[in-house]
Amino acid sequence: MRPVTRLVAAALRLPAARTGRVAVTRDLPVRVRDGTCLRTDHYAPDLADAPCVLIRTPYGRGGPIRLLGRLIAERGFHVVIQSCRGTYGSGGEFAPLVHERDDGLDTLDWLRRQPWWTGAFGMFGASYQGFVQWAVAAEAGDELRAMVAVVTASATRDSTYAGESFALDTVLTWAELLEAQTVPWLARQWELKRGQPRLARALAHLPLAEADRVATGVTVPFFQEWLRHHTPDADYWRARVFGDRITDVRAPVAMVSGWQDIFLPAQLDDYARLRAAGARPRLTVGPWTHGSPGLLVAALREGLDWLDTHLAGRPGPERAPVRVHVGGDGGGWRDLPDWPPPATLTRWHLRSDRRLDRTPPDTETPDRIWYDPADPTPSLGGPLLVAQRAGAVDNRPVESRPDVLTYTTGPMSTAVEVVGPVRAEIHLRSELSYLDVFVRLCDVDRRGRSWNVCDGLTRVEPGRFPRDASGAVRVPVTLWPTAHRFAPGHRLRVQVSGGAHPRYARNPGTGEPLGAAVTLRAGWRDVLHDREHPSALELPLVPAPSTPGR
């Protein structure tokens, strides 16, 4: 065992290594059906009958993933790390999600021909490394014995167009990150040190069809395609999502995610579909964003345990099928038999004087805000691709804006624990037919700081939601699921606004095409909360334990 892996394993409290002798062969050429050569590294432990772990990635085979390969190999697995086509020496052109099924299955055929192949393999990876797992999982057969899917999902379309908006920050930041892999290291470090000014300009730029060139200096084909093919019925996505066969997957699946992760709702949908099909996946959701260091450490520990149990036949101690971290003061880890747990659904109504109350409204005057897409309501924290900008932050700067409404309870006399799906129903009238509704739940502490817990956005356009005789429209908003404890003395707060830019692309208010819109139309909107229009947030309440979590 090398000193660096010994130190890392000790720091991360990983299981003991089974061998210190790992032979590494780099840049192996794996030729797939269309003749493209995919560059591949092989980490071979000096153990007989060691099964294989496959990691396919567009992010290179050096740096941290090289260390990961050796750590896993030292624990008794052949590790094969392959660069997706068009990345880091692999031939062809990188086109997200297009070739991953065929390339993955062809790589499996290559594995079967290796002298060290034992007839069993597992897969491991986060984000895009998880998409490629789902691309082949249904067709890999009984040889696939285990999957470790970290902050990822079988279908990416709904995460890209959450609420039928467009996840601008995530998509453009990812496009810039991929393009940055092709520039010299010093140039990249200089851009990061300056705070990525090109990306910041691109996120504010219109039309969006030019934003990729502003951010990277080149036109990014998939970014252009995702701007064009954004409608729910677009044929483009049918071959790029893999959820339609998730119930055919027989391999045991371990899922790891975070409450502030960009793919959390889609990943929990995968969990629910596997459970409905009779599978028993393991689920861990912690206090993490997409790139949190804590997430990566937990994923490695969970992944090694899962691979040991289901791939190598070395089961460890039993643990609950679901383990979630409850945020907030006095929260902590909870073991659950399933997700979501039984809960009491409660409605917290938007009321006059900006109150949030369990009592339904009667006759109340609407609250009015002006939304101007030329000065869009900014996003602050939350589920973002880049960990440094993501997560829970003090929301008072955005709550002080005139285009944000807040509704707040009085101090809680006892702890309130919310665990499960969160939904809102906002009734409004507007002079505009095209608009967005953003809703965020916050925890206001004793010092008055307002910490975001979960949120969601819904895009409104003609015909999507019916209007009543008064011209009001009821807008359902699905927020991120959560697990959070509101401590005694804290208050619940709901924000309602017209957007969260640049996390979501601003709604221009005109109905112009997503990529071409340049005309911006501002307008009033009235948020209603009366007997006929009871705007409310629906929260799943569970009994709060009398002692703090662990």
TrEMBL record:
Region (Disordered), start-end ranges: 355-374
Keywords, sorted A to Z: Hydrolase
Gene3D superfamilies: alpha-amino acid ester hydrolase ( Helical cap domain) (1.10.3020.10), alpha/beta hydrolase (3.40.50.1820), Galactose-binding domain-like (2.60.120.260)
Residues in Xaa-Pro dipeptidyl-peptidase C-terminal domain copies: 304-538
Domain of life, source organism: Bacteria
GO MF terms held by the record: hydrolase activity
Biased composition (Basic and acidic residues): 355-370
Protein name: CocE/NonD family hydrolase
